[in-house]
Automatic annotation (TrEMBL):
Transmembrane segments: none annotated. It comes from Evansella alkalicola. PANTHER family: ATP SYNTHASE, ATP SYNTHASE SUBUNIT BETA, MITOCHONDRIAL. It is found in: Membrane. InterPro entries: ATP-synt_VA_C (IPR055190), ATPase_a/bsu_AS (IPR020003), ATPase_alpha/beta_chains (IPR050053), ATPase_F1/V1_b/a_C (IPR024034), P-loop_NTPase (IPR027417). This is ATP synthase A/B type C-terminal domain-containing protein. The lineage of its organism: Bacteria, Bacillati, Bacillota, Bacilli, Bacillales. Residues 244-312 form the ATP synthase A/B type C-terminal domain. It comes from the Bacteria. SUPFAM superfamilies: C-terminal domain of alpha and beta subunits of F1 ATP synthase, P-loop containing nucleoside triphosphate hydrolases. Keywords: ATP synthesis, ATP-binding, CF(1), Ion transport, Membrane, Nucleotide-binding, Translocase, Transport. The keyword 4Fe-4S does not apply. Its main location: membrane. Belongs to the ATPase alpha/beta chains family.
């Protein structure tokens, strides 16, 4: 089953309103979302689920389930993203967050880092008054008002340079983004698309953006405790994690880290109510390693340097994975948790 994946671009093109459509054939939108992002591998999907999806898309199972080409990961140098929800070049990533969780800071940081990799950054301006978008504009090469204007400019640039494109969810709901992606695909232009939700309503929807290759789910608890970027490693995911696209060592460390973070979150709830004294002795080590891992996953951003006073850090993926292994194996058990907040590498 290696390298077998769901044909997400086809689903995006054929069934733009996938949430409603999934329910009409008895599918849980969350299940469909997890299949699209790879959180549920195709090999574990029920046959009836795949048949229902092929019916919705009016395609054969051979078209729906493809032996995909090797996906290309774009290394961002952001620890949480590169390990737990890698960015797929040419894919679509949805940022799911409420106000104050930092989704626009992450978008601005992504644009800043991608420009260093010679991407051209473009933004489809949202309708209405959204002054918060000004925080992103400094990292945007091209601002457009309409999908037609975006097509005219990107169809020329896309044959010369890589494109990173962002838009608000309001343009997804109208079908504009799917239309733009299809038109550009027809002329051989591929862009990496970032979708944000300026109204903060996406967290209440099962498939707020339709089919995605990557999902970055922001977390209120992390944001409240100033653990930025407040992207939840447990609920964020990417289709690039499935199908043999990453090294086995990456996946092994990632799975160990997820297991620790899940247990740590359970223990935090217990400690919050009853205190450390009620923590089982066998779990104390797990709790403290979880603390260190969570602290290590914070990171200084380039676009926030003037506010934080900390220089932005780019951490190669291989170094992040090695640092996670050290934390998981207890090699930094004597390190103070506070010293791991907003550092680069160990």
């Amino acid at each position: 089953m290696e390298n077998i994946q769901l044909n997400v671009p086809l689903l995006r093109r054929k069934v733009p309103n996938l949430t409603a459509a999934a329910r009409t054939v008895g599918l849980r939108p969350a299940t469909v979302s997890n299949l699209c992002t790879g959180k549920i591998p195709i090999g574990r999907a029920e046959v009836k689920t795949l048949v229902a999806l092929s019916t919705l898309a009016e395609c054969s199972l051979d078209d729906l389930i493809i032996r995909g080409e090797k996906m290309e990961m774009v290394e961002t140098g952001i620890k949480t993203l590169d390990v737990f929800a890698p960015l797929t070049k040419g894919g679509t990533v949805g940022l799911v967050a409420r106000f104050g969780m930092g989704q626009l800071v992450v978008l601005a940081e992504m644009f800043h880092r991608l420009k260093k990799r010679d991407f051209t950054t473009a933004l489809l301006l949202p309708s209405g008054d959204h002054p918060e978008i000004n925080d992103v504009l400094g990292e945007v090469d091209i601002q457009v008002q309409t999908v037609d204007e975006a097509y005219e400019k990107l169809v020329v640039l896309g044959k010369k340079k890589d494109i990173a494109f962002a838009a608000d969810r309001s343009h997804v709901l109208t079908g504009d983004i799917h239309q733009l992606q299809e038109r550009l695909s027809d002329v051989g232009v591929t862009m990496t698309t970032f979708l944000v939700d300026l109204k903060g309503e996406a967290v209440d929807e099962d498939l707020p953006y339709g089919p995605l290759e990557t999902l970055w789910q922001f977390d209120a608890d992390l944001a409240a405790r100033h653990k930025f970027p407040a992207v939840n490693p447990i609920y964020s995911t990417s289709s690039i994690l499935e199908g043999g696209h990453l090294e086995k060592n990456h996946l092994a460390v990632q799975q160990r880290a997820l297991k620790l973070l899940r247990r740590y979150r359970e223990l935090r709830s217990l400690v919050a109510v009853s205190g450390m004294d009620k923590l089982p002795a066998a779990e104390v080590e797990t709790y403290h390693r979880g603390e260190r891992l969570e602290a290590y996953l914070t990171q200084p951003f380039y676009v926030a340097e003037e506010f934080t006073g900390k220089k932005g850090e780019y951490i190669p993926q291989r170094e992040t994975i090695e640092d996670l292994r050290k934390i998981l194996d207890g090699e930094v058990d004597n390190e103070e948790v506070e010293k791991l907040n907003f550092i680069g590498t160990l």
